[in-house]
Amino acid sequence: MEKGKLQDRPLAGIGFMVAAFVTVGIGDALAKILVTALPIPQFLLLRSLAVLVLLLPVFARSGGIHVFRTQCLRLHLARCVLNGISLVVFFVALRNLELATLFAIGFVGPLFMTAISVPILGEKVGIHRWAAILVGFAGALVIIQPGADGIKLVALMAMCSTCLWATSMVIVRKMSATESDATLLAYINTSLLLIGVVGAPFVWQPVTLGQVGFILVLAVTLVVGQWLMLRAFRMAPVGVVAPFQYTGIVWATLIGWIVWDEFPALNVWIGASILIASGLYVMWRERVRARERKAAEAAAA
Fold first, then answer.
1. Contact at 8 Å (CB) between 243 and 23?
2. Which string of DSSP letters, residue by residue, matches 229-242?
3. Residue 79 burial by Cβ neighbours in a 10 Å radius (0-12, 13-18, 19+)
4. Helices H, strands E: what count in the chain?
5. Are the beta carbons of 241 and 16 closer than 8 angstroms?
6. Which own/partner contact pairs does 64-70 have at CB distance under 8 Å and 24+ positions apart?
7. pLDDT-based confidence at 154, cuts 50/70/90?
8. What ranges in 145-265 are assigned the alpha helix state H?
9. DSSP states along 8-49
């Protein structure tokens, strides 16, 4: 969230990215504990309130209430709706799936972002990347295991949540030219708070001191995790640090094993490997296309 010059420190960038996904894993584990104990609307309300309190200094430095000034109100609303549905569905899946399995299904996200960028951003995706996207979705099917009894509903919900989130991230990319980080954070977290405010009174139950502590720690992991990712991208090029997001499945597996004695089945590892390979190939092709565009522009100059 702070401004600064881009640097060329790949090892530092990789370190920040790995730390970011350790933080994400801890945050998801805390969320899993909390959504198992609390109704989802109540949890969403408390989570969003804690995050907004932590972000108040950021909003104050960005103009206070003026942080809501925007040139893209409709896009903000679309993103908030998509993200809100995605998060509620994610929490339902989080209650019922192993942490590492849910994380592995999340690897569909970058592939879906590449696909959805065609209709939303007008970007061109070549045959190589389309092939990798299709292979990646095949890997997701390996994880969710469609069979004679159909696709497991909770796994399908996790995949739908990931695709909705990915679409909202493409919308963020579309808004990035005019909207500040503070404005993006203000709209999304306020909208999630409002969803909680509407739903929580109907399902409210007493909250223990321990749950309050978990919610506060979770809010810290959400803010710190985002800061670590931003630092990673400032320290090194996207192509260097982005692949290290896949280390997240290692931390999710370790946390799931330690806390819940969970360990993913073989199909999860096979599917995750296919998704990771597809995602890395798409990143590589995007770097190749970027170099080709630069070469063409240099030749035309």
1. no
2. HHHHHHHS-HHHHG
3. buried
4. 12, 0
5. yes
6. 67/180, 67/182, 67/183, 67/186, 68/183, 68/186, 68/187, 69/183, 70/178, 70/179, 70/183, 70/187
7. confident
8. 153-175, 181-203, 209-235, 238-241, 248-260
9. --HHHHHHHHHHHHHHHHHHHHHHHHHHHHS-HHHHHHHHHH
CA distance 136 to 113: 12
CA atoms lying within 13 Å on the CB side of residue 270 = 9
d(CA 200, CA 262): 31
Instruction: Spell out the residues 6+ positions from residue 63 whose beta carbon is closer than 8 angstroms to its own.
Output: 69
Residues with Cβ within 8 Å of 50's Cβ and at least 6 positions away in sequence, in order, are 215, 216, 218, 219
Confidence band, pLDDT 50/70/90 cuts, at residue 1: very low
CB 13 within 8 A of CB 240: yes
Task: Please answer whether residues 97 and 28 qualify as being in contact, where contact means their C-beta atoms are separated by less than 8 angstroms.
Answer: no
Over residues 99-105, the mean pLDDT reads 92
| Residues sharing a CB contact under 8 Å with residue 250, sequence separation 6 or more, in sequence order | none
State the Cα angle at 117 between 114 and 123, rounded to 5°.
100
- Quick one: pLDDT at residue 2? 45
C-alpha dist (Å) from residue 6 to 62, 94, 198, 237: 21, 36, 42, 9
| Strand, coil or helix: 147 | strand
Phi, psi of 122 (to 5 degrees): 70, 20
DSSP letter (8 states) at residue 205: -
N-terminal to C-terminal alpha carbon distance within the chain: 35
Given a cut of 80, whether residue 300 has pLDDT beyond it is no
